[in-house]
Amino acid sequence: MSRFLSSRFANLVAYTPGEQPRDQQYIKLNTNESPYPPSPEVIERINADEVKRLNLYPDPAGKSLKEKLAKLYGVEKENIFLSNGSDDILNFAFMAYCDEKRGVAFPEISYGFYPVYADLYHVTHVKLPLREDFSIDYKDYCNINKMVVIANPNAPTGMEIGLFEIEEILKSNPNYVVLIDEAYVDFGGTSAVGLVGKYPNLMVSMTYSKSRSMAGARLGFAIASKEIIEDLEKIKFSTNPYNINRLTLVAGEAAVDSNTYYKENAKKIIATRETTVKALKNLGFLVLDSKANFIFARHDKISGGEFYAEIKKKGILVRHFEKEKIRDFVRVTIGTDGQMDIFLQKTAEILNER
Ligand SMILES: *Cc1c(COP(=O)(O)O)cnc(C)c1O
């Protein structure tokens, strides 16, 4: 730290992303990317013609991508906000809707970025414990009179809450934004997007990073009332109007056009998840009920930290959180069938060595 840094940030602890090794020597099951490449249309449309236009700024309004997404989700383009990954949406929402007086509430065990944004903006935040079985008790969030942020399905548990519960939270906090982070919704979850017309305080965020195989392109979007979208646009145009680059906009449009491809991939991932869960249970693992492209599991014979280290030695990266209540678990991204076969084989070896 330099001596020039504002005291506002002196104690800030930044988010720690999962490992991103630059070589391909590991089977990478640690950051919930898709094991499948972008669709052929995406690959085709990021071509030399588009690269040649990189001297020109991109459309700051992202009009044609918004129109395509609006059609796909049955909303108006004024209900859509585009961002540089959905982390950007979270950033803007914390900036826009909370402060020292207007606090925020989110689950104690959830996406590790929420408390970082809360600290960044000096927002009073409450972390609400999950139930014993790692589910979210929606009643904890009713009448809480704070912004509410819930990942649904939740990370790293993979578990979901239903729309009834979300509606209760929305109804009982009419003066606060309820942000539902649907990064993993395409893997069998239930989306709250259909409620946007009914609840002006609902904001749903989604990403191209998981189900749409574009983590490297950085593209996310939010769906909400026109008024909420206006707020987000105001913040965007006050920070970085060109936050999505030309190539990503083109790729984003092509991805919407090839939606069926991604739906098929999501189906494959769900099927692989189910066979992996079964196999892990046969090996004696406790596996939480996942609606995401990852699973959260623990075994009595081995701690999460040890499992992470041992399977890394065998060439597979998974994610471990050195955090109270979940340190016995590991989070494993669902890869291809072939990758999961190797994962299961190495896992069985590790257990046999004990
Ligand atoms: C991966 C993830 C995101 C953000 O992903 P981006 O790559 O920034 O779009 C947001 N929320 C959760 C819960 C995630 O797991």
TrEMBL record:
Cofactor(s) recorded for this entry are:
pyridoxal 5'-phosphate
Pathway listed: Amino-acid biosynthesis; L-histidine biosynthesis; L-histidine from 5-phospho-alpha-D-ribose 1-diphosphate: step 7/9
Q: Pfam families of this UniProt entry?
A: Aminotran_1_2
Q: Name one GO molecular function term.
A: histidinol-phosphate transaminase activity
The answer on whether this UniProt entry bears the keyword Transferase reads yes
PANTHER family listed in its UniProt record: HISTIDINOL-PHOSPHATE AMINOTRANSFERASE (PTHR43643:SF3), HISTIDINOL-PHOSPHATE AMINOTRANSFERASE 2 (PTHR43643)
Q: Which residues carry this modification: N6-(pyridoxal phosphate)lysine?
A: 210
A GO biological process of this protein is:
L-histidine biosynthetic process
Any keyword Nucleotidyltransferase?
no
Domain Aminotransferase class I/classII large per the UniProt entry, residue ranges: 25-345
What Enzyme Commission number does this protein have? Answer: 2.6.1.9
Kindly state which reaction or reactions the protein catalyses: L-histidinol phosphate + 2-oxoglutarate = 3-(imidazol-4-yl)-2-oxopropyl phosphate + L-glutamate
Keywords linked to the UniProt accession = Amino-acid biosynthesis, Aminotransferase, Histidine biosynthesis, Pyridoxal phosphate, Transferase
For this chain, the family text in UniProt reads: Belongs to the class-II pyridoxal-phosphate-dependent aminotransferase family. Histidinol-phosphate aminotransferase subfamily.
Give the quaternary structure: Homodimer.
What protein name is recorded for this chain? Answer: Histidinol-phosphate aminotransferase
Instruction: Write the lineage as a comma-separated list.
Output: Bacteria, Bacillati, Bacillota, Clostridia, Lachnospirales
Organism the protein comes from = Anaerotignum propionicum DSM 1682
